[in-house]
Amino acid sequence: MTVAVIALRILLALGFVGMGINHFLPRSVRVMAAMIPPALRGRRITPRMLVWFTGVCEIAGGIGLLLPQTRLAAGLALVVFLIAVFPANAFAARHRDRFGVLAVPLVPRLIGQVVLALLVLVATFL
Length: 126
Description:
Strand content: under 5%
Oligomer: single chain
Mean pLDDT: 94
Distance between the termini: 7 Å
Shape: globular
């Protein structure tokens, strides 16, 4: 195992854990909940609950990348996670007037998430 792979795992873990923690800050929760597309909003599972759930997923996935016993499951789950949250990012991209700088244009956001998913796979399988 190279130093570069270890560094990549640590950086990804810090990023995912940091973003996961952000899902529990009140202002962030409000903004992220507003990013949930109307089609995904429900009565039993509210947008806030989805934000909290995705925060837990990011924290668990980030930590899981660091542990050999959980790395494979965490890495694959994070790739699925990145795919699952893309509709919220796409919704925000289509509504820049509501979300400002958080609304990264669709194509750069897609490219960024694909690159991030590839980095997660590298950290998972190397």
